[in-house]
From TrEMBL:
It comes from Polarella glacialis. The chain crosses the membrane at residues 42-64, 70-91, 111-130, 142-164. The lineage of its organism: Eukaryota, Sar, Alveolata, Dinophyceae, Suessiales. This is Uncharacterized protein. The keyword Transmembrane helix applies. Keywords: Membrane, Transmembrane, Transmembrane helix. It comes from the Eukaryota.
Length: 206
């Protein structure tokens, strides 16, 4: 093979490599655009976001507690809880906020790809409940009010996410609870002038 032919083959190989790289980048960009994150109504997202931040804040509070120095293993567990809390906030925040910060967008994409359950409200609901059970492992008595409060809030938010995943929104839960309470007590609890009025079904979008 002549030197000219070898040089031509080398240029063709380089061109093919560049085209393949560009195509791979385009496909990756398309996949990022196709990434779907299931989110609930604004109120539910706000609850999830603030509860996760509160969980992270409680971790900081516990880490600066000098009595925990005698239990170094606890620091590892607190680090896990902090990571879990910050990770869930990414899926409750506005998409535009996350996309404006490159590293956060990449981390969110990685989680959505390898931990697909967290991109669904039902999966996040179970994940919130799991985080709540982690906090309960630190609550060995009623004195541990911080841990108990975090656990209760996370489990509550997780339960709401599970209901939302099944198509039941938080306001519908309140309506149904009020309905059954009025039927049981015979009193007009919500002040609508009716006792035990049937909950109003959510209208489906046109």
């Amino acid at each position: 093979m002549s030197a000219a032919a070898a040089s031509e083959l080398s240029r063709e190989a380089q061109t093919a490599g560049l085209l393949a790289k560009d195509k791979a980048g385009t496909i990756a960009g398309d996949l990022r655009g196709m990434m779907s994150i299931e989110q609930g109504p604004v109120f539910l997202r706000f609850l999830g976001f603030t509860t996760s931040l509160a969980s992270f804040g409680c971790v900081i509070f516990e880490l600066i507690n000098p009595t925990n120095l005698v239990h170094p293993v606890m620091y590892v567990l607190y680090a896990y809880i902090a990571l879990f809390a910050l990770s869930t906030t990414l899926f409750e925040a506005k998409k535009e906020w996350i996309e404006s910060v490159g590293p956060l967008a990449s981390y969110q994409e990685m989680l959505a790809t390898h931990c697909q359950f967290i991109s669904l409200m039902g999966g996040r609901g179970l994940f919130y409940i799991f985080q709540g059970t982690l906090w309960l492992t630190f609550a060995d008595s009623l004195v541990e009010i911080v841990q108990i409060a975090c656990a209760g809030a996370l489990v509550f938010v997780g339960f709401l996410h599970l209901l939302a995943h099944c198509g039941i929104m938080p306001h519908e839960v309140m309506q149904r609870a009020t309905h059954h309470a009025e039927m049981a007590s015979g009193k007009d609890i919500n002040g609508d002038g009716q006792i035990g009025a049937a909950p109003v079904a959510a209208s489906s979008p046109a």
